[in-house]
Specification:
Blueprint (H helix, E strand, L loop, with lengths): L2 E5 L2 E3 L5 E8 L8 E6 L5 E7 L5 E3 L8 E6 L4 E6 L8 E9 L2 E4 L3 E5 L2
Parallel strand pairs: 2-11
Antiparallel strand pairs: 1-3, 3-8, 4-5, 4-9, 5-6, 7-8, 9-10, 9-11
Length: about 120
């Protein structure tokens, strides 16, 4: 069974940093891309970044380019998303996602709130 579990969310002050983790199981992690999405209240789901199986990390969302890094540790079956210089508009539920055997899988989400 494919499982994705996010952790590391919480309340962060503006200007601070946060690292989210997505721990995966149930599929060939080291050769599978895992992505991060986020959804703010009242908005659609935004595609943020992808960590490919070969280690390449790509930041897609213009809103976090220059402030975000995506990485993975294949020994720990974990993908990370770090965002620095957090802004209030980074507040959202962050989800990790993968596509295995023609099926989309999502984690339960991690709430990130940026507020003073």
């Amino acid at each position: 069974e494919v499982q994705l579990v996010e952790s590391g969310g919480g309340l962060v002050q503006p200007g601070g940093s946060l690292r989210l983790s997505c721990t995966a199981s149930g599929f060939a992690f080291s050769v599978t891309s895992v992505s991060w999405f986020r959804q703010a209240p009242g908005k659609g789901r935004e595609y943020v970044a992808t960590a490919h199986g070969d280690g390449r990390g790509i930041i897609v969302a213009d809103s976090v380019k220059g402030r975000a890094t995506v990485s993975r540790d294949n020994d720990k079956n974990t993908v990370y998303l770090q965002i620095d210089k957090l802004k209030s508009e980074d507040s959202a539920v962050y989800f990790c996602h993968t596509f295995v055997s023609l099926t989309n899988y999502w984690g339960q989400g991690a709430q990130v709130t940026v507020s003073s």
